[in-house]
From TrEMBL:
Organism: Coffea canephora
UniProt keyword annotations, A-Z: Hydrolase, Repeat, Transit peptide
Family affiliation: Belongs to the acyl coenzyme A hydrolase family.
Signal sequence, start to end: none
GO molecular function, one term: fatty acyl-CoA hydrolase activity
Record flagged with keyword Repeat: yes
Pfam families per the UniProt record, alphabetical: 4HBT (PF03061)
Domain annotation HotDog ACOT-type: ranges: 46-168, 244-361
Name of the featured protein: HotDog ACOT-type domain-containing protein
Record PANTHER family: ACYL-COA THIOESTERASE (PTHR12655), ACYL-COENZYME A THIOESTERASE 9, MITOCHONDRIAL-LIKE ISOFORM X1 (PTHR12655:SF3)
Length: 391
């Protein structure tokens, strides 16, 4: 099987962990001596030699001769996991390694299209640490055709949050702290701390709920057009479509080859599958090949195990049509772990992606439709995502 540079780096890290686990007693204690590490200790760089490696180039090329974004996102998660392990690793070989899992992806922003005819570099490091969580920032760079300046070569940025668990009890475990050294490292820590405060604020507001009068007003405004579709379909706006008419889904059985070092299904694999379904959803909705803009947010709510029956369901949740030259298509993908033998199904992941369409499609008369909720539950999901995007 062919492995990318990131996959190879991840498997090297896995090998060292498995070797250590084999040499550690089953009742070995968890790491108890915490230290402060500078970001430089976890900084890792991976280079994709697209310009000289034909096999590598073909692995990552999509039908439009740009990079397969789902595959790159999968690699980003793998690299973020390797970086988090570097930061949390202990010099004491007699202790049990921590279990590190992806908790969320706050943002993956594409700043310009990524080509597969030019070498690509991913650099990442831990930028912020809480008690048992840590944020990893990754930057994808590629020399621009127009200029060779470093600032113009930044193609994509990503922020991943990992949490540490005790390998035996599964409870949250403290991690090594961080000691920023350079001015840039201190700035990145401040930005990450601000994001952490925003996350806390969101959780607090979610617990408190929304003002009933305000929520009712917004729900009624969103549902007004949907009621016309449901009650008088012949009179509905032809430039709009119901959310329920944009749905796509697929299913799979999770295989051993897709597991991470802890035996659970690798988060990057789930992200790739979700991205590819979201891309197909935006494609069938727009009627033209979409262009990826950003991953808005990903929640890893429950672990997915080998052998699980996993169902991905996607829809266009809403569109942003204020700028006719660059309409935005917001796609939601929800992953369900389904257990037919127990007649149960529960949500394991939620993914939110934003796409637009290529400028030439707009010039040729393509028009993106407004998307309308038909139920209160759909309207609440739309409001929740719109509010999240404003934070």
């Amino acid at each position: 099987m062919y492995h990318s540079p990131v996959t190879n780096a991840l498997w090297e890290a896995r090998s060292s962990i498995f070797e250590r686990l084999n040499n550690v007693a089953a009742d070995a204690p968890s790491p108890n001596e915490l230290i402060a590490k500078p970001p430089s200790k976890s900084r890792t760089s991976i280079v994709y030699k697209f310009s000289t490696d034909y096999i590598l180039r073909e692995q990552y090329r999509n039908p439009w001769n740009e990079i397969r974004m789902g595959k790159l996102v999968e690699d980003l998660d793998a690299l973020a996991g390797t970086i988090s392990f570097k930061h949390c690793s202990s010099a004491d070989s007699t202790t049990m390694p921590l279990l590190l899992v992806t908790a969320s992806v706050d943002k993956i922003v594409l700043r310009r299209p990524i080509r597969v005819d030019t070498d690509l570099t991913i650099v990442g490091a831990v930028t912020w640490v809480g008690r048992s969580s840590l944020e990893i920032q990754l930057e994808v760079t590629q020399s621009a055709q127009e200029t060779s300046s470093q600032s113009d070569s930044l193609a994509l940025t990503a922020n991943f949050t990992f949490v540490a668990r005790d390998s035996r009890t599964g409870k949250s475990a403290p991690v090594n702290q961080i000691s920023p050294e350079t001015e840039r490292e201190k700035l990145l820590w401040e930005e990450a701390e601000e994001r952490n405060q925003i996350r806390k604020k969101k959780r607090g507001e979610k617990r408190q709920g929304i003002d009933n009068d305000e929520e009712t007003k917004r729900l009624n405004e969103l549902l007004a057009e949907g009621r016309v579709f449901c009650d008088m379909p012949a009179l509905a706006d032809r430039d709009s479509i119901l959310i329920r008419d944009t749905y796509l889904q697929n299913s799979l059985i999770c295989q051993p080859q897709q597991r991470n070092i802890h035996g659970r299904i690798f988060g990057g694999f789930l992200m790739r599958r979700a991205f590819e379904l979201a891309f197909a959803t935006a494609y069938s909705f727009a009627g033209a090949a979409p262009r990826f803009v950003e991953v808005d947010h990903v929640d890893f709510l429950k672990p997915v195990d080998v052998g699980n029956f996993l169902r991905f369901k996607s829809c266009v949740l809403y569109t942003e049509l204020e700028n006719p030259d660059k309409p935005m298509i917001n796609v939601e993908v929800v992953a369900h772990v389904t257990r037919p033998e127990f007649r149960s199904s529960e949500v394991s992941n939620k993914f939110y992606f934003t796409f637009t369409v290529r400028p030439d499609a707009i010039k040729n008369g393509l028009k993106i439709r407004n998307v309308v909720p038909a139920t209160e539950e759909e309207a609440k999901r739309v409001i929740e995502r719109m509010d999240a995007e404003k934070m």
